[in-house]
Design brief:
elongated; mainly alpha; 66 residues
Length: 66
């Protein structure tokens, strides 16, 4: 059975600052940060289309609410 957070110790703690650092924590955090940002950007472009990149306005949002 693969080890999960719950298998390695406490799943919830009172203070994140008091918890001991994990190996590669910074790398995992930054990688997740950029992957999530890239995914949201891809969703935005996928939803509004590539033309939105050239003219990123809220006019389309306003036209949807009218």
């Amino acid at each position: 059975m693969p080890k999960t957070i719950a298998h390695r110790g406490q799943f919830h703690h009172d203070s994140i600052a008091a918890s001991p650092p994990k190996r590669a924590e910074h790398i995992i955090g930054w990688a997740a940060h950029y992957l999530i940002g890239t995914a949201f950007a891809a969703l935005l472009i996928g939803f509004w289309g590539e033309s939105w990149i050239e003219n990123p306005t809220t006019a389309r949002l306003q036209s949807l609410s009218d």
